[in-house]
Specification:
about 10% strand, alpha/beta, 12 helices, TIM Barrel, about 290 residues, eight-stranded parallel beta barrel
């Protein structure tokens, strides 16, 4: 289940005063990704702007995703927060609603100790029966899950994976070593490191760029699994063209605009305070899309 390419979908918003969720744009986005061959849909990740959505929005949005996907691929839902009790409450609701798995980010803003991180994940895991993926993204949370903590957490029955978005190959290697001999899978969360991660033993990737260049990422996964190293190297290098324009806006403004300009779905802007892209940046995005014939 925890392998291949999982897309952390952007959350479509309307261009109205409330920046309300655009449910009409959700279906074409999901149908596009599934038709292109992704192995899973990840809701309420960083690109999904979970941090600017309230609990009811998260529940209603996730329910609609589950309905549209209709078990064609697994649906992973992000439920992590700064509070153990809040994370447990949302995790239970998502489990009852039909989520296939949960993604749980480390608490952010504060800097918990290793023991506090372990206890947080253990408490959440024990509150549900469905599988859990740990989500490590230290540049956004301020804390990194240590190798020692991962090794302990790998012993918990329903903790089945970890997404590493540290961008640090040594950290990824540590996780692969820590989970060796267990049924816990390591997933690459930094798109520039997919090939390196697979070579070290990672099982898949939660790749934000697959919102836009889905075929490139799916083909990269296939080439890596088939051992076609030259082909994989070409696809891995191709990702850099998209990554090169991401610096022109705050996450996930460029990704969302690229989805729109590629004609995939009218996913709208990122929520405020993140600003919409300018016409100059739109030009750079269009040039990038033309490279992929999008």
């Amino acid at each position: 289940m925890f392998e291949g390419i999982i897309t952390p979908i952007v959350t479509p918003f309307n261009r109205d005063n409330e920046q309300s969720i655009n449910y009409e744009a959700l279906e074409p986005l999901l149908e596009h990704l599934i038709a292109k061959g992704v192995d899973g849909i990840f809701v309420l990740g960083s690109n999904g702007e979970f941090h600017v959505m309230d609990e009811m929005e998260k529940i209603v949005f996730s329910k609609r995703v589950i309905e549209i996907v209709a078990k064609r691929v697994p649906v992973y839902i992000g439920t992590g927060s700064c509070s153990t009790l809040e994370t447990i409450r949302l995790s239970k609701k998502m489990e009852a609603m039909g989520a296939d798995a949960l993604s749980v980010i480390t608490p952010y803003f504060l800097t918990p100790t290793d023991e506090e991180i372990y206890q947080y994940f253990e408490d959440v895991a024990k509150s549900v029966r469905i599988p859990i993926i740990l989500y490590n993204i230290p540049k956004a949370t301020g804390c990194n899950i240590s190798k020692a903590v991962v090794k302990r957490l790998a012993k918990i029955d329903n903790i089945k994976g970890i997404k590493d978005s540290s961008g640090d190959i040594q950290n990824l290697k540590d996780y692969i070593e820590a989970t060796k001999g267990t049924d816990m899978n390591v997933l690459v969360g930094s798109d520039s490191k997919i090939s390196e991660g697979y070579q070290l033993g990672a099982h898949g990737a939660i790749a934000g760029t697959s919102n836009v260049i889905t075929e490139v990422i799916v083909n990269l996964n296939k080439a890596l699994k088939d051992g076609n190293h030259d082909e994989a190297q070409r696809y891995q290098k191709d990702i850099d063209v998209l990554r090169g324009v991401l610096k022109y806006g705050t996450v996930p403004s460029i990704m969302k605009r690229a989805v729109e300009l590629a004609g995939i779905a009218p996913v709208g802007p990122a929520r405020l305070p993140v600003q919409e892209t300018t016409s100059d940046v739109d030009l750079k995005i269009r040039e990038m899309l033309s490279y992929y014939n999008l």
